[in-house]
Structure formats: structure tokens, C-alpha cells
Design a protein that fits this description.
5-stranded mixed beta sheet; 229 residues
Length: 229
Amino acid sequence: MIADVEETENLFRQTAAQPSGKLRIDVPGRIGRLVIAPALPGFLDMYPKIDIDLGVTDRAVDLIEDGVDCVVRVGPLSDSGLISRPIGKLPLINVASPAYLDLHGTPHIPDDLTHHWAVNYASPSNGRVEDWEWIENDALRTKLLSGRVTVNSAEAYIACCLAGLGLIQIPAYDVRAHLQAGELVEVMPDHRAEPLQMTLLYPHRQHLSHRLQVFADWLEALLKRQLLE
């Protein structure tokens, strides 16, 4: 309540044009490390009175209980009662290592997947292994692929793919450098999964926060520029 009163008072001060205070945000691991952290100096230069407490995790946090001002979520949302700000769609691609493809061949259509291995990804929140997905005739199709390795983090998911342990479905930005270096190869480009919705979430009480408004605007522009091309 004190924070809300202070924020409301700031709206009537001339210094409100220069937002101040600390923001606690939480973002998925690789988005935080590869995209947000490298760009933060620019934001802090523009807003020298704002400090950032950056949480980087692949688990879902409770904004109210953990005292977080905003989070970036990727994928479907539960009905949480939070304010949601859609950012855009995150493209997914299918990739494998050259070593894997040399050993097992290259899949061209979903029927070929019967003869291939996948690196299975288990959701950190519920442990459920994600199905392989693709869009066919405007409909979502799924298939549980065989796999000898199951992981629960994006870092391990990519590392196992690089090691030749199977196919993965991954946001394109996540493996851009590996594709450019020839360490991974896109397969079945005509049978991609449905893009994932990216959303910025924050508690309803934060709608007055000037520092949150400027950060949300900056973050949306950054993510669209870096991830959604």
C-alpha cells in the first residue's frame, strides 16, 4: 500500500518524467541471458534512476508471493487474474546436428519421424514430456517421438541436440548462432510447430507504475526486434 501511495504521488510530481526505483522482473533463462542482459546497459543509460533485479529461470514464479513486478511468459497462459500484454509470436523450428543426420538420415515429412530419435523435453513446472508438433492443413498435429534422453532445461535441450542425441523443436533465436556456424541444421521447414505466444504479465496494482510502463515499452520493442523477426 505504501508503494502504491508513493507511486501515485510521483504521478503529480515534475520528477515523474524521470522514473525511479527498483523493478523486479523474471524472464526465461535463455531470453534473459542472450537478449535482455546484453541490452540492459542501454535501458539503464536512458533511465539512470531505475535499478533492475533480474530473475532468470525457466520455472513459473508467483508474482504476488515473490514480489515480482513483471514476468515474460512463453506459451499458453492460465487464468491468473494478472494483467497481460501480448508481445507477439515466437517462431519455432526443427533442428538436428550434422552428425545425427549423417547417422540417421534427414526427415522430410512427419511420417519420417517414426524412424528418428528426439531429445525429449519435460516441462519444469509439471514434468510432462512435450509432444512433437506441426501444423498440417491449418490443424495442429502431435506425435510422441522415441527418445533416450529427457531434459528439463533449454540449455540441456540444445546441448543434447548438439551432441547428436536427437531432433529438437526450439525457438529460432535460441539456435541462431549454431545454425550460422553449421553446428545445427534446420529440418522439415514446411512442418513447423505453431509459434508460441509471448506475453508480459504484471499484477493489477502495478498499472500506475511509471518505471514499469517505460520498462515494458522498452522490453516489448527489444523482444520484437531480437526474437520475432
